[in-house]
Amino acid sequence: MRISGYCHNSSPGIKLIILLLLILWGALIVAIPMFFVKGSNALLIAMYLQNIGMFILPAWIAATLFWGNAGKSLYLNKAPRIIELLGIIALFIVATPALNRIVEWNEAMHLPEALYNIEQWMRQQENAATKITEQILQVNSFSHFLAVIFGIGILTGIGEEMIFRGVLQRIVQDKNHRAHVAVWICAFLFSAIHLQFYGFIPRLLLGAF
Q1: CB 74 within 8 A of CB 59
Q2: Would you tell me the crossing angle of helices 116-136 and 42-50 to the nearest 10 degrees?
Q3: Of 209, 208, 174, residue with least CA distance to 188
Q4: DSSP letters for 94-143
Q5: Which residues, at least 6 apart from 61, have a Cβ–Cβ distance to it below 8 Å?
Q6: Domain assignments of the chain as residue spans, ordered by start
Q7: Distance between CA atoms of 31 and 25, rounded to whole angstroms?
């Protein structure tokens, strides 16, 4: 109770530090079992551990420390209305052609010649991320397919939303009292943390959306 009360009254800067420490603690916890995980499912298991250890648990603990009730403060106790779900689906369908054009434009970007080495490093990061994604998506059974769908399509989304929108965006908004600023800062960080620079702009826009 004392720790929770102290964190609740602490400044946004202190809350950011606590959140970062929780994520780093989660990364350490995730890294330990990965020394013992081998085989074709190692990447999939790593993705599950990362989502739980670095996103979901840190977000839950941080929300509990900062605001008392994690389920309520992260809005996990509220289900979206059918009209909201239909509106989101409709918006994605309408926005997809424009987003595809932005993806193509972002992928074709080139830095000035003076930044050639930086661009090569960015391309290497992009290729490495693509190879990891392709390896995860190589399914060998229906149960493996379901595990990939749940891990990428559900668990990753829940974990990232809990951290970036549920905790980080609220902390940033508490600091500057401007919702739109908090939305764009968190969208920028959300896109940057993926280290996929040739998908940065589309991911930034999706994060803000």
Answers
A1: yes
A2: 110
A3: 208
A4: HHHHHHHHHHHHHHT----GGGHHHHHHHHHHHHHHHHHHHHHT---SHH
A5: 22, 70
A6: 2-78+109-208
A7: 10
At 124 the pLDDT is 86
Sign of CA dihedral 45, 49, 52, 131: negative
The reported pTM is: 0.82
> What dihedral angle (degrees, nearest 10) is formed by the CA atoms of 30, 36, 42, 44?
-30
Closest-CA residue to 66 (of 170, 137, 154, 188)? 170
Write out pLDDT tens, residues 24-50. 998 888 888 777 777 767 888 888 988
In whole angstroms, what is the distance from residue 93 CA to residue 202 CA? 15
**Could you report the per-residue pLDDT of 140-178, keeping only the tens digit for each?**
888 889 998 998 889 999 999 999 999 999 999 988 778
Indicate the average pLDDT of the chain: 87
Quickly tell me which residue has 């401007």 as its tokens.
178
**All residues at 6 or more sequence positions from 168 whose CB lies less than 8 Å from its CB, including other chains:** 16, 19, 186, 189
Q: Which residues contact 183 (CB under 8 A, 6 or more apart)?
A: 169, 208
